[in-house]
Design a protein that fits this description.
Elements: H1 2-22, E1 26-29, H2 42-53, E2 58-59, H3 61-65, H4 72-81, E3 85-89, H5 91-95, H6 97-108, H7 112-115, E4 116-120, H8 129-152, H9 157-183, H10 189-192, H11 197-207, H12 251-273, H13 279-287, H14 300-316, H15 333-346
Parallel strand pairs: 1-2, 1-3, 3-4
Length: 357
């Protein structure tokens, strides 16, 4: 029996590793258990076991998100950029500076109504106005205490200023969390009845939008001799050398597009040297390994890079389009709008419009 258990455990770990290579992770933002709250992580552990069983790859700080000698800030930034984040809200979560910083980063990356899957534990219901007032007073008191310490020189100036500023936006974030939780049904029965089927099913549906498109993995159908017909004669290509092969873009517009994508590529390379890239940007660099030729020719190479750009924007969930982009390599109005708005947010110096209309 022990041997069988070990075999099943190893098989499970192999399956999980396969899932890691192919799927976007679900990030878990939660507060740790301690001596005063020994059962605080029970719901997180239960959810993790269910995600394992359902083939959902997740990242959790204690397991695979923040290993030895890894930056806590970088791990929190990765959570903030996640395409799916389960936020387990407890009283300790709301009063924890690290947890509220994670919530701030999640909120700053936009579209929390789509990316966030909230689980509110008993005793932390922000929709209760008395609880909200209690948390609001907690943060204002801590902020005022820091300001007083700053005046008296009890703690270093830089540390006090930074922490006092953080408390300022935590108070604002608390108000937005209150509005979010009162507006969206967080299914309190999930915790009360230990029923996570609803969470799992919605996570699966959400992650389907971000599955990599791998056409090569699909088996090609065998040709049917009965239905075989004579091949059609190849049409003569009447385009001049250098013309765009994509009818929707002129040569000048395509050249501008290629230059702007190269600007994104170079910015990601620079950030990679400084260790500032998030998960989505790292994936972009894995697929796009060199700058495009800015020749105005919309060839297969440009099309593939546009496809990776669409994939990147889907991962980022930039928040300016209702549905995920088609990974078709076609630079249509939807992709243009999403990239244009993302680039202006990422870098104000990027061209106001990508295409010269």
């Amino acid at each position: 029996m022990i041997f069988l258990t070990k075999v099943l455990y190893l098989h499970h770990k192999i399956v999980v590793r396969m899932i890691e290579k192919n799927n976007n992770p679900v990030y878990i933002s939660y507060a740790w258990a301690n001596a005063n709250n020994p059962d605080l992580e029970d719901e997180v552990n239960r959810l993790c076991r269910l995600m394992d069983r359902n083939g959902i790859y997740y990242k959790r700080d204690k397991e695979n998100l923040c290993p030895y000698r890894w930056s806590i800030n970088k791990a929190e930034e990765e959570i903030g950029e996640g395409c799916a984040v389960v936020v387990v809200i407890s009283e300790k979560y709301i009063k924890s500076l690290h947890c509220m910083h994670e919530w701030h980063l999640i909120k700053e990356n936009g579209k929390i109504w789509q990316r966030v899957f909230p689980i509110v534990l008993k005793g932390a219901d922000l929709t209760d106005k008395n609880k909200y007032k209690e948390y609001y007073k907690f943060f204002t008191d801590r902020r005022d205490e820091l300001v007083e310490q700053l005046r008296e020189g009890i703690i270093p100036l830089s540390q006090s200023e930074t922490e006092a500023a953080r408390f300022g936006y935590y108070i604002s974030d608390l108000a937005e969390m209150y509005q979010y939780l009162t507006d969206y049904n967080t299914a309190k029965s999930v915790v009360r009845e230990n029923d996570y089927d609803l969470v799992i099913s919605q996570l699966k549906k959400h992650l389907e939008m971000f599955e990599p498109q791998n056409q090569e993995s699909k088996p090609k159908p065998k040709p049917d001799p009965k239905k075989e017909s004579k091949p059609e004669p190849k049409k003569e290509d009447t385009r001049k050398k250098g013309d765009s092969v994509y009818d929707g873009l002129t040569k000048k517009q395509t050249s501008l597009l290629q230059k702007n994508i190269n600007s994104t590529y170079n910015a990601f390379l620079e950030d990679e040297k400084n260790g500032n890239n998030g998960y989505a940007a790292k994936e972009f660099l894995k697929k796009v390994t060199k700058p495009l030729r800015t020749d105005g020719v919309y060839d297969e190479e440009t099309k593939n890079v546009v496809m990776e750009l669409q994939h990147y924007l889907n991962r980022k969930q930039v928040g300016w389009f209702e549905e995920s982009l088609e990974l078709d390599g076609i630079y249509g109005p939807k992709t243009e709008d999403a990239y244009d708005k993302w680039s202006k947010k990422a870098n104000p110096n990027v061209d106001k419009k990508i295409l010269d209309k």
